[in-house]
Every structure is written in C-alpha cells, then in structure tokens.
Specification:
Helix content is 74%, strand content 0%. By secondary structure, it is mainly α. It has one domain (2-111): Serine Threonine Protein Phosphatase 5, Tetratricopeptide repeat (Alpha Horseshoe), CATH 1.25.40. The termini are far apart.
Length: 120
C-alpha cells in the first residue's frame, strides 16, 4: 500500500505543477505534466483493480485518474477509468462524483470534441 501512496502522491505533485503551468499560460507544459500525472495515477489505481476491500481508496484513485484523463482530453480513457471506479462498492459520495465525471465525459464524446482515433 505504501508503493501505491507514493505513486499517488507523485501524481498529485505533478498535477499541481501542471496547473501552475496552465496558470502561467504554458499550455504545452500543462499538457505534458497532465499526461505524466495521468499515467502515474492510472498506475496506482490499476494496482488495486481487483482489490474491492480497500474502499474508498480504490474508487478515489480511479476518480482522480478519470479527472486527469479529462484534463488531457482523453475522454474514452476517462470513461474506462470511471467504469472501473464504479465496480465494487464505492461509497455513495464517490459514486456521485464518478457519475458527474461520466456526464462531463459523455458531453465531450457526444459533441464530437474528441473524435475517436481510428487505427491506421
């Protein structure tokens, strides 16, 4: 569990740096750091993928990873992370937050803001 916490803490530190970059209008750095934070937070969440006994930690990690995916405009990835977060028995408040993220994700997907990339 310590390894998961370390990865999560690193992801949150990088996400904070990303928002500082965005505040400074350095969008390239914001995107780079956001993607790095997403990779780390997804890694932490996936380490608990089948461990349904560690709620709310498990669903919180998936919620956080999904929010980072939205920041990266990775809407399909956000949708998948949200679905994983909803599996099991997350607390009602986390369920509500995951559903809100899902609504946001679906708005982007249905408005065509991020067309699904086709394999070449």
């Amino acid at each position: 569990m310590n390894q998961i916490k370390e990865i999560h803490d690193r992801a949150m530190d990088i996400a904070e740096l990303a928002f500082v970059a965005k505040y400074k209008n350095d969008l390239a750095e914001f995107e780079r750091l956001s993607r790095q934070a997403l990779e780390l937070e997804s890694q932490a969440a996936k380490m608990l993928e089948r461990d349904f006994e560690v709620e709310p930690t498990r669903s919180v990690l998936y919620r956080s990873a999904a929010a980072l995916a939205l920041n990266c405009k990775e809407y399909r990835e956000a949708e998948k992370l949200i679905a994983m977060g909803l599996i099991g028995n997350p607390p009602p408040e986390i369920v509500g937050e995951l559903r809100e993220l899902l609504e946001q994700t679906q708005q982007y997907l249905h408005k065509g803001k991020n067309p699904i990339k086709k394999a070449v």
